[in-house]
Amino acid sequence: MSAYDVIVIGGGPGGYVGAIRAAQLGLKTAVVEGRGALGGTCLNVGCIPSKALLHASHLYHEATHNFTEMGLMGKSPSVDWEKMLGYKDGVIKNNTQGIEFLFKKNKIDYIKGWAKLVDNNAVEVDGKRIEAKNIIIATGSEPATLPNVEIDEKVVVSSTGALEAGKIPKRLIVIGAGVIGLEMGSVFSRLGSEVTVVEFLDHITPGMDSEIAKSFQKILSKQGLTFKLNSAVSKVESSKTKAKVTYIDRKSNDEQVIEADMVLVATGRKPFTSSLGLEALGIEMTERGQIKTDAQWRTNVANVYAIGDVTEGAMLAHKAEEEGIAAAETIAGKHGHVNYALIPGVIYTTPEVASVGKTEDELKAEGRAYKVGKFSFMGNGRAKAVMQGDGMVKLIADAQTDRLLGAHIIGPSAGELIHEIVVGMEFGASSEDIARSCHAHPTFSEAVREAALALGDGAIHM
Ligand code: FAD
Ligand code: NAI
């Protein structure tokens, strides 16, 4: 008889959340995790540590740039980087231990070690065979690099090395103007680094609504980040303390070389599947090395499921969590479901950027008739009171039915504001539904309502 109903390989947001739901549904569950702590990339070297550093560096920036304007005088704080890293490590520990507590509460066995699949009903951990009726692979992802770029995690770093940097670099080159590049670039820029972001494309943040991306780039440039767009990095050479980045200007074809004390390679992540034994079991993969699944997260091998970053789709913690819950529900005989069209994305810079649904660019390409309502945070009293008037809310609705199709927000607390629209869209809301809902004053949320009003008879404060 199997020891477990479900074994989950990987204790990240996909794996640990899926395990908790499986246990709640009465399934005897274990999680195998090799890194020595639960929480995966997200809690240990991703979402949470980066947000701790974004928070601390934001407060430092506020203290050194905006305090005097508000009449807050006196000596500005200085940065103790080691202490800041200690604060970040404390936040990580607190969160990962919280997951251990949740496992105990839900009677989930936490098995420490690296798991290998031996057949479709068993895994091996440190030479020990453990059987289960179902296996969920939730092994996540790892940083990808470029040809001719070797990451040493000291001078040439991935996000993991950047979160542990030995010191604040005087000059930082970020390769890739995606989410990691801009969040970590912001952290170091606020702490005093000269930051240059080298991006292959002619715009930052691929996939973002292009109007918002342009506005975002302008704001970040004003904050001191320098962008080299249309620039393809061809190699990075490093010594013990410095690195040289060579890139080709894709317009002129000229080769350029720039130098820095640290280079952050932020050109995407790849599925983490090494030594899992997938080939021997005949598990089908995509061309990009992700585990292929059907709409219920089943692989082609019976009883074996896969979720999160190791599968196709957005590499986001909340996408992994949704899939973890849905896969557990499927295994328990329920109807697990994820609405992939409404997974929000948030970048935690200042201002934050958040989006859900279709971008204007996508709707144009689809040839769908739509209308756009915008409202600038300059017209929002609360945003002005806290000196965060940069940015806007942009809502897109169907031209005929007024049904909301997408929302793109750059501004204060955008990552919170977006959820009003996520819930609205889940319920099939029209822009008029948002516009006719009373929003408390003075809140940033009023900007969302004003953008909805702009789709009808007009915004009030614009
Ligand atoms: P992971 O979190 O990668 O967890 C997989 C776990 O499986 C790991 O702990 C690994 O050790 C373990 N494992 C792998 N193989 C085995 C094995 N054979 N045996 C045992 N254990 C194994 N997403 C957001 O939504 N919001 C953010 O703000 C955000 N910020 C990020 C910041 C950074 C710097 C990075 C790098 C990522 C960020 N992400 C963010 C992405 C997010 O971390 C991932 O999408 C998320 O962690 C994926 O969850 P997962 O469970 O699929 O995999
Ligand atoms: P990304 O895919 O967001 O961005 C990578 C960037 O690198 C792209 O803009 C790409 O054009 C550029 N690039 C690729 N090759 C290049 C080259 N040779 N030269 C110059 N530029 C090049 O990947 P990133 O930022 O590494 O993030 C990885 C994943 O982590 C993302 O999928 C994201 O979803 C997740 N993440 C999410 C966060 C959030 O939700 N707030 C925060 C951080 C990471």
Gist?
This protein is α/β, with parallel strands linked by helices.
Task: Kindly describe this structure.
By secondary structure, the chain is an alpha/beta fold. The chain is about 30% helix and about 25% strand. The protein contains 14 helices and 22 strands. It has helices spanning about 15-25, 40-45, 45-65, 80-105, 160, 180-190, 210-220, 280, 315-330, 360-365, 380-385, 415-425, 430-435, 445-455, and strands at about 5-10, 30-35, 110, 115-120, 120-125, 130-135, 140-145, 155, 170-175, 195-200, 225-230, 230-240, 245-250, 255-260, 260-265, 270, 305, 345, 350-355, 370-375, 390-400, 405-410. The strands form five sheets. Strands 1, 2, 3, 4, 5, 6 and 17 form a seven-stranded mixed sheet that branches. Strands 8-15-9-10-11 form a five-stranded parallel sheet. Helix 3 runs antiparallel to helix 4. The longest helix is centred in the first third of the chain and has 25 residues, at about 80-105. Flavin-adenine dinucleotide binds near residues 10, 41, 50, 308 and 348.
